[in-house]
Amino acid sequence: MRVKSQQNPKTNVLFRLFQLILIGIFVIAGSYQSYGQDKLFTVVIDAGHGGKDSGALGKKSKEKDIVLSVALKVGQELKDKHKDIKVIYTRDKDVFVELHKRGAIANKAHADLFVSIHANSVKSSSAHGTETFVLGVHRNATNLAVAKKENDVILLEENYEKHYDYNPKDPTSIIGLTLMQEDFLDQSIRLAKLTEKNYSTSKQLRSRGIKQAGLIVLHQTYMPSILTEIGFLSNRKEEAYLRSDKGQQKITKSIVDAIVTYKHELDQIKASVEYNKAKDESEIIAGVVFKVQISTGSKALATKPYNFKGLQPIERQKTGNHYKYYYGKTSDYKAAKRFKTRARAKGYKDAFIVAFKNGKKISVREALKKT
Hints:
This protein is an alpha/beta fold. It contains ten helices and twelve strands. It has a seven-stranded mixed sheet with strand order 1-6-5-7-4-2-3, sandwiched between helices. It has a five-stranded antiparallel sheet with strand order 9-10-8-11-12.
């Protein structure tokens, strides 16, 4: 089965369904607690093949080299521009890493996403474009062929029979590989859809869509996971593009933007869950006013929503040579906590609650003792 990456009139409905599914998972299983204030959102970047396993071969390049270059660029971009995301590589040099160890790296890190980067190759030199896979059983010839090609790497491993319940001589045995990833299928599809959508904005790339196949490297992980094929090395023009700095930068941006958008959606859903959970609760502290401090700076900014990511009301208070900016004003401590949640969801990750009595700042602990 092929999930089309193009937008259609059902996009908003499907995204809303994705939100509801995630909210259900969060509320029922409490899984969102593993990604909270005490844990950075963690992404494992997996450069396919490596070492003695060259992967697909082009006229002038090897898959293992191109995907490693892209993987390192993706990781560096995330590290440089998104400090709230932790990056882990399954390999950062030309070494052979067994498939089960790649999954183990992600599982040990309790990663939030697993992104495996590969390049394609077929007998026909005319085939071109990107395609992103999630784990699933769709027994058409093309998907089985891709699964067999990627899974056959286990034949390079010593004693592979001990690590996998899979027979490389029988591609249909992939059916047994799909059960563990079922819980994450919707999230994996969402990330895959974002990735392919980003690829399709380049004139040099053609999105072949989202597909499902029994890929061992995805089966080994316990989190939303995708395997993205960034183009065909068997196509000379596409191989040249994948080898170029321009091509690799475009691929990198597509993957990074997909990850960041996915995380942003997750943050919004998490904030919504927390907000709704406390919505009908209140804890009025008589004589005390709570505010949320969101920033401090040397400039006196106008307290308008456009200066504070849409938040309002905002108050500005001068302290020495600096200005403190507060969001919200309430005697309800639980409402103040909702203000803090909303501020953090908007990007003010260090926002915190402060308390005032008769215009004088007091500790929150002292304020709560007065009840």
